[in-house]
User: What shape does this take?
Amino acid sequence: MLLTNAPPGTGPQFLHGHTETLYAHTEQMGWAILNDGFRMFLSPEVPSLLKGAARGFVERLLEPLGLQRQDIRHWVIHPGGPKIVKGVGRALDLKEQDRAPALEVLRTHGNCSSGTVLLVLQHVMNEVRPQPGEYGVMLGFGPGLTLEGMVLRF
Assistant: This one.
């Protein structure tokens, strides 16, 4: 959850969150904590696994609010890599413009781990400029293999 001291109505409203873990694929992504720091391991299968899980995950994220993918105007996708953004985009039938914020942040900042999705949100807020009342979905992916999602209203 994001907290701010900004006046009400000046940022996105968090409507709903959802998490799923693909337990059959826990070995595909993870962190090892070593004496000299953290080491991430990432299987080349991750983009394909996320592509296969994304559509159903987003449908389950939106269902409690009575929304469908077509209701979402803004997609804030964690850019774990171009293959992940492309695969998730294909699974969700997203247009190039829907994937562009994630790919632009990946190009300019790289993958900064979990916080990168917030850079994508910042890009959407500053460059795309959602209109009041439009819906957005934030998607993040992590160890476990875990999918996290939030529905926002701008």
